[in-house]
Specification:
It is a single chain. The chain is mainly α. It folds into two domains: 54 residues, Homeodomain-like (Arc Repressor Mutant, subunit A), CATH 1.10.10; 140 residues, Tetracycline Repressor, domain 2 (Orthogonal Bundle). Helix content is 78%, strand content 0%. It is built from nine helices and no strands. Keywords: DNA-binding, Transcription, Transcription regulation. This is TetR/AcrR family transcriptional regulator.
């Protein structure tokens, strides 16, 4: 391996180490505990080295947000591919969304601003969940030829209920898993039934 390739690989590794250190700090201390200095200390680098890769903490948060949306999209695509029936796809996708938020609490908090300020810069990644889910909603409603506004309203009906339940669980002690599952399934089934009419 040539020196250029080795230097490039080391830079990629350092960047990945910075992101992983940020994740580890957030898991241990929450988002309020994240700082450039703590990241540098965790990976045993000086703070100026961190600034060579990320101009500020916001840039790290933006990177983490993009990575979070990429993981969410992967889960949504997998859920969609699990069946060919649009109503079943929609249910599977919202359950995958719920599971993502449960399993990636810190990432979800950052992505959607639960108990913190989310990154305000929109990216291609942040638009993909909306596009995937509204595509399935449009397929379910194809017989009535819905407008974009109607599709958007249906999406936000789902999002409001599911994001609200997620937020209750993140902010408070939450509900039991059985109660959450029942509320989630009732909401998803009810909304799907409503949009199919």
């Amino acid at each position: 391996m040539g020196s250029k390739e080795r230097i490039l690989r080391q830079k990629e590794e350092t960047r990945a180490n910075i992101i992983q250190a940020a994740r580890d700090i957030v898991k241990d201390e929450g988002w309020q505990g994240l700082s450039m200095r703590k990241i540098a200390d965790k990976i045993e680098y000086t703070a100026p080295i961190i600034y060579e890769y990320f101009s500020n903490k916001e840039a790290i948060l933006q990177e983490l947000t993009c990575k979070g949306f990429c993981l969410l999209v992967r889960d949504l695509e997998s859920a969609k591919a699990s069946t060919t029936e649009p109503a079943e796809q929609l249910e599977a996708m919202w359950l995958a969304y719920w599971n993502f938020a449960r399993d990636n609490r810190e990432a979800y908090q950052l992505m959607y601003g639960v108990e913190m300020t989310c990154c305000t810069q929109r990216t291609t990644e942040s638009d993909l969940p909306y596009q995937l889910i509204t595509g399935v909603i449009r397929e379910i409603m194809k017989d009535v030829n819905p407008t974009d506004i109607v599709i958007k309203q249906k999406y936000f009906t789902f999002f409001s209920v599911i994001h609200g339940l997620i937020s209750i669980n993140i902010i408070g002690n939450g509900l039991s898993n059985d109660i959450n599952t029942q509320i989630l399934k009732d909401a998803i089934t009810g909304i799907i039934r409503y949009i199919k009419e």
